[in-house]
Structure to design on (240 residues):
């Protein structure tokens, strides 16, 4: 297979399924052959990213992802997509393992804010404890000229309950809980837009879309960037 890309997924599996579903739905098609060629690696047994970020004595997820990347690189995908915000903690280390570009979900999400909320100044982040504690989004938000608003301990606890208990453990999303998290960040924390900085939150947004308040959905954004890049590569090759 040529002109394909690789999805590094399984972190978690429902979020990876959501990515693929959205990608296929947004691809302009009239026949089977119009869909994109891509490989999905659903590496569900990768250790929890947040656990390692908060405690380096826990199993490190990076060697497994690096091994995945190095095993797939000889197949020459056009690019990689990493379907986990928290795994971007070691983005430079992962990119160093291959000459093939890895799309940066965090950078692309922050770039999209200007289209979602053109006048935004205060940008809230809902994410895992690992993403928040390590400040994964900090430099991206600050370099774009925004003020970052992190969740309070209470909001973070409620966010992780939705991510780990409802979605990862029970396999379903509580729409009311999800919308309340967004509302709290917008109304109580005075944010102009909220980044959904975990693909499980993106899954929650797919199941129960947020329509009242502006959100920068990291997974939705990377779906669009994947689609744009893959179609551009296809069109370029068709024109040669």
């Amino acid at each position: 297979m040529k002109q394909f890309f690789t999805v590094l997924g399984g972190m978690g599996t429902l979020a990876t399924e959501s990515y693929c579903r959205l990608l296929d739905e947004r691809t302009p098609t009239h026949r089977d052959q119009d869909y994109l060629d891509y490989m999905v690696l659903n590496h569900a047994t990768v250790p929890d990213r947040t656990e390692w970020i908060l405690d380096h004595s826990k199993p490190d997820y990076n060697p497994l992802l690096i091994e995945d990347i190095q095993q797939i690189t000889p197949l020459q995908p056009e690019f990689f997509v990493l379907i986990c915000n928290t795994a971007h903690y070691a983005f430079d280390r992962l990119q160093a393992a291959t000459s093939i570009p890895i799309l940066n979900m965090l950078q692309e999400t922050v770039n999209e804010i200007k289209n979602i909320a053109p006048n935004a100044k205060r940008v809230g982040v809902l994410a895992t404890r690992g993403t928040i504690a390590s400040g994964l989004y900090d430099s991206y938000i600050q370099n774009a000229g925004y003020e970052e608003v992190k969740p309070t301990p209470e909001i973070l606890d409620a966010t992780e309950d939705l991510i780990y208990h409802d979605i990862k453990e029970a396999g379903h999303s509580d729409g009311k809980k999800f919308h309340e998290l967004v509302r709290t960040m917008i109304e109580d924390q005075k944010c102009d837009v909220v980044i959904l900085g975990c693909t499980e939150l993106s899954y929650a947004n797919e199941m129960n879309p947020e329509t009242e308040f502006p959100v920068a959905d990291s997974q939705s954004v990377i779906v669009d960037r994947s689609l744009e890049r893959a179609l551009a590569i296809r069109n370029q090759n068709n024109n040669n």
